[in-house]
Amino acid sequence: MNNILMTVFILILAFFGFQYFMVFKMKLKKGKSAPELSGPYGKAIKNKKTALFYFYSPSCGACKSMTPIVSGYTKNNSRCFKVDISKDMETARAFGVMGTPSTVLVEDGIIKEFIVGPKPASEFTQLLEQTRG
């Protein structure tokens, strides 16, 4: 019985340790230059304006609530990008995305925000609004 409890405790500790590591690593990316990309992603970064990259996966449960919000913005906003990592792993790797959902806000070619995990709709909408204009 003690071995089972110890194993469960270690697994829980490892899970939270990995979560903390991911968040810590993403915070280190803030203030760094955005990766050099080609196509519309690269163009948005090179224009020195604000661009938002939302990384998701179709199998991600947490992404299911955020993806419809982003979809509304990507239709009418050339600086807001929805990146399906199952189809475009190269872009996710370039940014250093380790999990979904992840949101990266790039301003003047610099990573201003790097958020891992779901956000409430109101906070997420505020990030999206920064790409207008």
Automatic annotation (TrEMBL):
PROSITE patterns: THIOREDOXIN_2 (PS51352). Keywords: Membrane, Transmembrane, Transmembrane helix. CDD domains: TRX_family. GO terms for cellular component: cytosol. Residues 28-133 form the Thioredoxin domain. GO terms for molecular function: protein-disulfide reductase activity. InterPro entries: Thioredoxin-like_sf (IPR036249), Thioredoxin_domain (IPR013766). It comes from Oceanispirochaeta crateris. GO terms for biological process: cell redox homeostasis. It holds the Pfam family Thioredoxin. This is Thioredoxin. The chain crosses the membrane at residues 6-24.
